[in-house]
Amino acid sequence: MSGAAAVTSEPAGTPAGRPVGLPAGEPAATSMTMVKALNLALRDSLRDDPTVHILGEDVGALGGVFRVTDGLAAEFGPDRCLDTPLAEAGILGTAIGMAMYGLRPVVEMQFDAFAYPAFEQLFSHVAKMRNRTGGRMALPITIRVPYGGGVGGVEHHSDSSEAYYAHTPGLHVVTPATVADSYGLLRAAIASDDPVVLCEPKRLYWTTGPLEETAPIGRAVVRRTGTSATLLTYGPSLPICLEAARAAEEEGFDLAVVDLRSLVPFDDETVSAAVRATGRAIVVHEASGFGGIGAEIAARVTERCFHQLAAPVLRVTGYDIPYPPPMLEKHHLPSVDRILDAVARLQWEQ
Amino acid sequence: MTIVHDSVPTDLVGSVGLRGPRRDPAPLLPDAEPLRVLGTRAAVTGDPDLALDLYSRLVLGRRFNRQATTLTRQGRLAVYPASTGQEACQVTAAMVLADQDWLFPSYRDTLAVVARGVAPIDALTLMRGHSHCGYDPYEHRIAPLATPLATQAVHAVGLAHAARLRAAADPRASAANVVALALVGDGGTSEGDFHEALNFAAVLRAPVVFLVQNNGYAISVPLAKQTAAPTLAHKAVGYGMPGRLVDGNDALAMHQVLTESVAHARAGRGPVLVEAITYRLEAHTNADDATRYRSAAEVDDWRTRDPLTRLEAHLRAHGQLTDATAERLAAQAEELAAEIRAQFEAAPEPDPRSLFAHVYATPTSQLREQAADLDARLALDAEFAADNSHNFDHTDHADHAAEGAGGQLDRDHDGRGDLR
Fold first, then answer.
1. Is B71 exposed, middle or buried (0-12, 13-18, 19+ CB in 10 A)?
2. Is B166 among the residues known to form the active site?
3. Same domain, A229 and A195
4. Which of A158, B79, B341, B393 is the most exposed place for a label (fewest CB within 10 A)?
5. Chain B interface, best mutation among A7, A8, A100, A121, by max B CB count within 10 A
6. Do B199 and A172 touch (CB under 8 A)?
7. A157 noted as active-site residue
């Protein structure tokens, strides 16, 4: 068993005998939006565990600006789904105190860039509390962060902030790209005894798919097998990579696509195996490239697969600029064309 | 019934409309002058046992501060932010809390942590550089000493709120009537987290007492550059909670105000903000030079208002402190100091293998690789040390550091607080 799997192989909140990711009373084939799946995960967690409490801005009567908490305050009461004052450090700091007293808070940060006021609480306390207390005080907090662009959001509504979280020891950072994973990862996050940042790709909120069994936190998954090169991606960029893989077929390339799902813990095993299988790799993400997740992955892959690599690991990422206005974002975001251009640069001439 | 609905204040002026609740600010205002008991009739008619008890705690507290400061000169503590002069705040903060209550200290509050029952060696692991928090927060119901200012005040709100939630869910639970007391300094009141903590506490009606020890300086910056508020206690009014102003060097007044504030919170009447006027008699830490920003005359003036000597003068004037008792207390203080020194003599070194143990509930595969790497290095170091045991050990940097600290001790030694 790999180390990553050991971390969360037994999510405490998952009733025994049921695979991770399947809600009670919902046929596996039921198709729903990602928003609905997240809502269902919250509802099931509130129902199964009385210590689970949601708090955030507009999570009550409104049901959240994306409706992820729709109906929860009505069903479970305002104490279980709490509309807080508008202050992110206050929200997360309050959640820390609640977790100290044995509750399992689920915090909603309304948008990626709105989470920044909570960074001190997150980095100085949430991430460090278990460590600084010698393992005596765990903070099982889930922090939901709708993130990424591609939705026409004006300034401060489209940041990709996952690298900040992933760079912070003590946090788990996961990001679903499918409806099934959004349910499974949120339930696993809430059940985890460690703090988990769930980066929710808001451009995929309204995509639909079935609820299926998913893996616990810490496992990547090969979404498409291939022989030419391996695309390594996550969250909002998965559909673009799959589309690029289909387009690449016309050019004679057979691309594999790996969905990381979990940035921390990082699934070296699956990633390395997928890269060795093709000998070429491209990391694709929306966030700026410099000092980012792609840089870390390129380094890890190079360290582990150097002798199997036929070309340098390339990155297709957002440019190293502040997130652009929505009328320009299409130039900034990874696209099928940019991915295919990168594939063409993978040193095919021997 | 829910906590949230229960939290709507009952003292509204007019109806709750779009503009929100309107409350009469008058009952929330602090007194014009800090509450004093010493020198008033209340001190004479009050419980003499309490006064003597407070005095004995102050004597021990002062000795603790002096011993910890000495340990910095010996290189046994990396740093110590002394609360010398603030002992009345420190000991009463611990004293007024019930067993089930929680204390949320900041970095200058080691004495309050010790006063609540933590062994000095465990309370000082942070300052020793040994481990970030040497005590079990759940055993003592004390959060780790917070260095990022006022951040822990928000945790106090969350914990107190959670205790109310759990008590509402199960009225028989021990969670009933838990109060959280958060310690903040005057500088900390400028932090955004202080504002958010007070606002959340008031909105949630959380049973929290915020004790601001206004010692006049945030390292070097005096209060006049920190705030334009009439007093720090007045800030309470803006959040809709009562503000109390108290002489922080008057142990009787501190005990009274904190006891009343804890009772207020415990009764479900919401949070209280207490501003205690005190003074930091020592520099910010042993690494600070306070002569750069305040005069000796100012410090001398505050020495005349020392919480220890004030209470002692009161007790002696009323025949409540005999020389024999004073000698007994001094001997107890020396016992405490000797015990601290003995604890430091016997204190173990931190284990490098612990570095990876508590990052996550279960280490990631990456951390396991790094731990294996460190293990291999430690094994090589041990092998090298064994091979060279007859020679000077070139690998042990700690010995060099200890030598350096010892040399500095000789140069800096000024005789004050010398115990060794």
1. buried
2. no
3. no
4. B393
5. A100
6. no
7. yes
